[in-house]
Amino acid sequence: xxxxxxxxxxxxxxxxxxxxxxxxxxxxxxxxxxxxxxxxxxxxxxxxxxxxxxxxxxxxxxxxxxxxxxxxxxxxxxxxxxxxxxxxxxxxxxxxxxxxxxxxxxxxxxxxxxxxxxxxxxxxxxxxxxxxxxxxxxxxxxxxxxxxxxxxxxxxxxxxxxxxxxxxxxxxxxxxxxxxxxxxxxxxxxxxxxxxxxxxxxxxxxxxxxxxxxxxxxxxxxxxxxxxxxxxxxxxxxxxxxxxxxxxxxxxxxxxxxxxxxxxxxxxxxxxxxxxxxxxxxxxxxxxxxxxxxxxxxxxxxxxxxxxxxxxxxxxxxxxxxxxxxxxxxxxxxxxxxxxxxxxxxxxxxxxxxxxxxxxxxxxxxxxxxxxxxxxxxxxxxxxxxxxxxxxxxxxxxxxxxxxxxxxxxxxxxxxxxxxxxxxxxxxxxxxxxxxxxxxxxxxxxxxxxx
Length: 451
Fold this sequence. Notes:
mainly beta, Coagulation Factor XIII, Chain A, domain 1, Immunoglobulin-like, 6-stranded mixed β-sheet, 4-stranded antiparallel β-sheet, 8% helix, flat, Ig-like_fold
């Protein structure tokens, strides 16, 4: 017993002496958890989502989590360093920072009104969404830096401290550009010190290089392979051009909007319908925005769903809590299930009660009570209605509710340490001030600390 006590005291001294190292490790762990989610620009397709969809290749780990480009907020004064903007400064996603005029597949865009659509796998109270674009004179073969961008956002949408829905669209007026440019979308979070940084590689029609009016030849020999129930690979022979082909656009049926854009001569198409006939055509374009005639159409039918699919998905694994539970919510995440045909979604249970159905692999469960223990499990299901076994169970206790908090109100004097409630959350005053409309706690983190 004495030996055990001595060892315990010695261990305690070692731990104290190593406090700095432990603090560093704890910060690294906390930051690693913070980057596990939570949003990306889906349309126009961002660099990250084109990596996930196989249009961009050799992208590294971003193919598994395009929603995780989270870095310190404050751009352009703060945020990711120059040369690391596309990766949000995260070493795990450094391949995204490669920058040349031909490295990334591009989406076709026009100046003027455009719609930007975000998808969120977990939602945060939001300060704003801001959009930047590279200058007309930028160098596409140099690293992305602040000097490459017009640092006045061409579009700003206020978040008003609210959590976004799972899908959110903004209508923005994009400045006049021609040729290849990069658009940077920044999602500024209200209740953390971070923001999300999403880049879009856009091809604008115009006269770059000057005087080039010759379109590439039409792609030939469009063909398909690896045809499955919801995906296939499309390939074609390269086009020729008087200066050079920049990329290719893939079209489905009579639609004038491409479903994929790539700089190569093949693309993996996903999210197709099972047992469905498709007609695909391909166009080539150059740096001046000249587009070829469409290729000959290629007809292909995806494989049908099994008529007697009775195989359930595998059970989700590694269900765990992200971050620290609040007094009314908990953030859950799990590893995806597999299925012989495809997983359609997930159902989250609190005990035996269904609390949410989602298509992604994380969810913030809200509406909980303070100082209360909850046990959650998740089940996967497929399109045929087969349901997996339960995931592992995770038990969590919500934080205690704050006492002495009063509803926040404008034109009120607050002292340091005062507690207020706003939109169901509790905040502590950081700086003495008299409140004004527009200084709500979720909007001004310099004045209020989320409890």
